[in-house]
Design a protein that fits this description.
By secondary structure, the chain is an alpha+beta fold. The protein folds into 3 domains: 6-104 and 185-205, Alpha-Beta Plaits (2-Layer Sandwich), CATH 3.30.70; 119-178, Alpha-Beta Complex (Molybdopterin biosynthesis moea protein, domain 2), CATH 3.90.105; 212-346, no CATH class. It is built from 13 helices and 12 strands. The chain has helices spanning 6-21, 35-45, 56-66, 93-101, 133-139, 168-173, 200-203, 209-227, 236-253, 262-280, 285-292, 301-322, 334-346; strands at residues 24-29, 49-53, 84-89, 105-107, 119-121, 124-125, 144-147, 150-153, 157-160, 182-184, 187-193, 196-199. Strands 2-3-1-11-12 form a 5-stranded antiparallel β-sheet, sandwiched between helices. Strands 6-8-7 form a 3-stranded antiparallel β-sheet, with helices on one face. Strands 4-10 form a two-stranded antiparallel ribbon. Helix 1 packs across helix 3 (56-66), helix 9 (236-253) crosses helix 13 (334-346) and helix 10 crosses helix 13. The radius of gyration is 38 Å and the shape is flat.
Length: 357
């Protein structure tokens, strides 16, 4: 600093003081922003942030000197390149990044600018009427012709590839075609806060990214806890309901009569009796009437129809019961079996007297 001019020393001192007093510091690209737009951005940030623009070597000197107050802040120096500014603020790093990102807006290209993407002039009418400008368009390689009183581009045409320099003639023509390919604004290259330097890739995330990530993690953790039967306040209601359903289905499968299962067991026995009678050709007026009555057409179809209906209704019930844990019961599990059998009797067949002929 001994050979630095006094005004430079003062400017570096001001930047160091701003860094010392602010919890968050950013290096921001100001490349290509018109002066008037910079003033508007300064006004928009006033009250929350200070913006200091100067030569890059002075910014690096200020960062090196500020290390005594903000350990690790000198790592921002590697991001100082091109036309830069130092932004100091009381906002956290992510809020600052989003506020700076909001300043980005389309702008016309200047001669020599590198195309940020393939610039395509779309097919269709232009704002121009017939005139000498058609020659300028054709000179740029655009297939222009006059149609319905307007100069029209016959097909989509790429006028410059991504990364290529934009010529002076093309830079002058693009705004006339209402094409603004450049994006200008205060682009945060890196932000320092709480001793950490955050790169652009870390900062540029959706606002709800972390909240969604935590919600997904909680959902998955609950699902795993239920799957391995881990007892906790959050899992006990689902575990008890699951245990009850498993015990019930096992009781029906093993034909253990209880107050809760007797109805399902009778329904299962009646359904099996009808299936056997149909398959063996057993003749009985009551059974024959039940088998032949609508909605039963054959011995096989009612079983398939009842099972399909049971599957559909069970899927809805399971979805409601297990939604919180993110689980679903197997469709061929015992729970569906007894519900299918139950429905065969009470939904698939009308109840009638079982008096023998």
């Amino acid at each position: 600093m001994a050979h630095v001019a006094s005004w430079k020393k003062e400017l570096v001192g001001e930047i160091v003081e701003d860094i010392k007093n602010a919890p968050v510091v950013a290096v921001v690209s100001m490349q290509g922003i018109p002066g008037q737009q910079i003033q508007a951005m300064r006004a928009g940030m006033r009250g929350h942030a200070k913006i200091k623009m100067t030569k890059n070597n002075l910014i690096r000197l200020a960062l090196d000197e500020a290390v005594q107050y903000k350990p690790g802040i000198d790592a921002l120096a590697e991001h100082v390149d091109g036309q830069c500014a130092v932004v100091t603020t009381d906002m956290n790093a992510f809020k600052l990044f989003n506020k700076l990102k909001a300043t980005m807006s389309p702008a016309p290209a200047k001669a020599g600018d590198k195309a940020p993407y393939d610039i395509v002039v779309p097919a269709g009418p232009t704002p121009f009427g017939p005139g000498p400008i058609i020659g300028e368009l054709q000179k740029l390689g655009l297939p222009a012709q006059i149609m319905n009183g307007k100069i029209t581009i016959k097909k989509d045409t790429t006028v410059v590839k991504e990364g290529e320099a934009i010529s002076a003639d093309l830079a002058a023509m693009l705004p006339k075609l209402e094409i603004l390919p450049m994006i200008v604004g205060m682009d945060a290259k890196a932000v320092y806060g709480d001793g950490i330097v955050y790169s652009r890739s870390v900062l540029d995330i959706p606002d709800d990214y972390y909240s969604n990530m935590f919600a997904t993690a909680a959902h998955d953790a609950l699902a795993v806890a239920v799957e391995i039967a881990y007892p906790a306040k959050e899992t006990m209601p689902t575990l008890i309901a699951k245990a009850y359903r498993s015990a019930y289905s096992l009781s029906v499968e093993a034909a253990i009569p209880t107050k809760e299962t007797i109805g399902a067991l009778f329904a299962k026995a009646d359904s099996q009796m009808l299936a056997v009678a149909s398959a063996t050709g057993y003749t009985n007026d009551d059974i024959a009437a039940r088998i032949s009555s609508a909605p039963v057409a054959t011995a096989a179809e009612p079983v398939a129809q009842a099972e399909q209906k049971a599957d559909e209704e069970e899927a809805e019930e399971v979805s409601e019961d297990e939604a919180a844990a993110g689980l679903s019961l197997q469709r061929n599990g015992p729970l569906l079996c007894w519900k299918r059998d139950y429905r065969r009797c009470y939904h698939g067949y009308p109840q009638r007297s079982r008096r023998r002929s």
